[in-house]
Specification:
The chain is α/β, with parallel strands linked by helices and 233 residues long. It has one domain: Spore Coat Polysaccharide Biosynthesis Protein SpsA, Chain A (Alpha-Beta Complex), CATH 3.90.550. The chain is built from 10 helices and 8 strands. Strands 3-2-1-4-7-6-8-5 form an 8-stranded mixed β-sheet, sandwiched between helices. Helix 1 links the parallel strand 1 and strand 2. Helix 9 packs antiparallel against helix 10.
Length: 233
């Protein structure tokens, strides 16, 4: 029997952009799981932290820059400075899986313009596992996903669509909708691990209902500024 080797992923330079604000308790673990010795460019974009977020990131040898607060502004600022062929936008409480860069390389080599990972939500509440699985199934069906899943995109595509929209909320939903129109989107089976603290601190069922309501309002045209005020309130 002839042995068929799996093709190697195309070598792509991946830049990891991490928007952060008051993430001192989380950011060190997230950065270590990127692989500090693997040669990937990492840019932490701080939006005005009042804790030791910046100090912890710099202590690991990571580049830290400052930008106006707001994930869209921070991620666009980081993308402008990054030099990679592919941009991975990673929340400061999200841990990457082993082999993450090879998985992205395979997806890009197969023609994807971008994509996301499956997600597990860390925490004690048993419903967090259900929430994570629902996110994976929904996003695989709709090709609409969230920043908690780790969003990656080819740089040329990111620049062509104008980066993240300057909105206060739902920037991840907005960019995933635009990426669908650009070409094939990869839904990777490899799993990131994201903190479930938002669900646990505000109530799992209440947060589920709130997020569904916010997304529905956004899809029917509600102002992201109004949604952000609702979310914060």
């Amino acid at each position: 029997m002839t042995r068929v080797d799996r093709p190697s992923p195309r070598r792509v330079r991946i830049s990891v952009v991490v928007p952060a604000r008051d993430e001192g308790a989380e950011i060190e673990a997230a950065l270590r799981r990127v692989g500090l010795d693997a040669g990937h460019e990492i840019v932490v974009v701080d939006g005005g932290s009042r804790d030791d977020t910046c100090a912890r990131a710099r202590a690991l040898g990571v580049r830290v820059v400052e930008a106006a607060p707001g994930r869209s502004a921070q991620m666009n600022a980081g993308a402008t400075l990054a030099r990679g062929d592919v941009l991975l936008f990673l929340h400061a409480d999200t841990w990457l899986p082993a082999g993450w860069s090879a998985a992205i390389g395979d997806a890009i080599a197969s023609g994807a313009v971008g994509g996301r990972f499956d997600v597990d939500l860390r925490g004690r509440h048993p419903m967090l596992r259900v929430v994570g699985e629902a996110m994976n199934v929904r996003s695989r069906w709709s090709r609409i996903y969230t920043g908690d899943q780790g969003i990656f995109v080819r740089r040329d595509v990111f620049e062509r669509i104008g980066g993240y929209e300057p909105i206060e909320l739902m920037e991840d939903i907005a960019i995933s909708r635009r990426l669908k129109r650009e070409g094939s989107v990869a839904c990777l089976r490899e799993r990131v691990s994201t903190s479930g603290r938002r669900w646990e601190s505000h109530g799992v069922y209440r947060t589920i209902a709130l997020m569904w309501a916010l997304r529905l309002a956004f899809f029917v045209g509600a102002s992201p500024a109004r949604l952000a005020a609702w979310y914060r309130g």
